[in-house]
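Bug report

Summary: structure tokens for V8-like Glu-specific endopeptidase differ between web form and batch submission.
Environment: batch mode, default settings.
Steps: 1) Submit the sequence below via batch. 2) Compare with the web form result.

Sequence submitted:
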Amino acid sequence: MRFSHRQRLLAATGFVAALALTATACDSGDTSASDKPDSAASRTADKDGDGIPDVIADKLQEYGIDVDDWQDGGWKDWDKDKWLSEAKDFVNPVIEDLWDAERMRDAEEPARTLSPQDASVDQGVSDPVPAPVQATPERTPYHENAGPVGKIFFDSPEGSMVCSGTVVSDVNRPGRSNLVWTAGHCVHAGANGGWYRNIVFVPAYNDLGRSEEELAAGTAAEDIAPFGQWWADWAAASDEWIAGGSGEGGAGAAYDYAVLHVKPESGDESLEERVGGALDVDFSGPSATEVDAMGAWGYPAAPPYNGLTMFRCIDRPGRLSLDPSLPTMYRIGCTMTGGSSGGGWFRMADDGEPRLISNTSIGPADDTWLAGPKLGEGAKALYDDMSTSYGGQ
């Protein structure tokens, strides 16, 4: 049974209030990731002092790419033979000052992964299409109400792009996590491409929700990126997304999730410490029928939005099956557009704390709903691999 309007409103109000109270005060199938160094020392060793860890320099050299050329713009070469695509190929050396305020404002939403609006979406187990839920602006300052939520910037063959992401806790580094949850299509192009480049996470982007005019007139860096920029030095996406993902979702849509390990441009404080909290991930994969309400957070960038404001949608989830052979996805009514991709979906756990349970993956052309993957055993294995590889680092 669907919520009545009044029931949905009450549930949403309580849910949002709980998230606001805990966002800055939280305690803290197959997987794909780059070949892992043995230790923090080997990962960060920089014998020639050029600012590029030797493990990254060696990997670029392996593919015939000069480190200096890469930093000076060689990363713009998207030749298929040089577009690193395999799980082990991820490289993302820091290029200081690349993502200035203007470049971040000009970044566009990626080609949206869309679910086809035909009978195929009703194969398997699908509930009726939900009524649209109008996205609501998050309260400012964002760091006090939804601190773990932020924007992900990256470069693709089409130019600079944006997605959304969430700081999640690290079981092997309690209270000091450097992990960010997002969608697979925000870090890897899927079956027809490879890893995107210059991936950074900016938590609580545009913290005060300033307008485009205000930002264009100039504003302090701490307003745009109150907790700084965090470069991804490791990434993991599902094998299913890498093998079958596409701009239309494809066979990888039900596995469209990824985890980033990030580091600051300077300093040694963890992301969780800097932001003030992180959210646990719920890998139990409950049926949509077992969940009263889910909330999706993100920075929609396609019209009528401009990517500068954080929004949220709250709804009771339904089920969406793209194919009987694929896991059923969650679906909620929501008017957020491209740019919200990768943003976390949250539910209230039995202990009254919010948990990340999914992320925005696909939606229809008319932007009336969103769907996200269930995070089950495969997602947990991906997370565990990342956490174990970087535990204590």
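Above is the batch result. After comparison, the two runs are identical; trailing whitespace caused the diff. Confidence is low (pLDDT under 50) at residues 1-14, 21-41. The first helix runs from residue 5 to 22.
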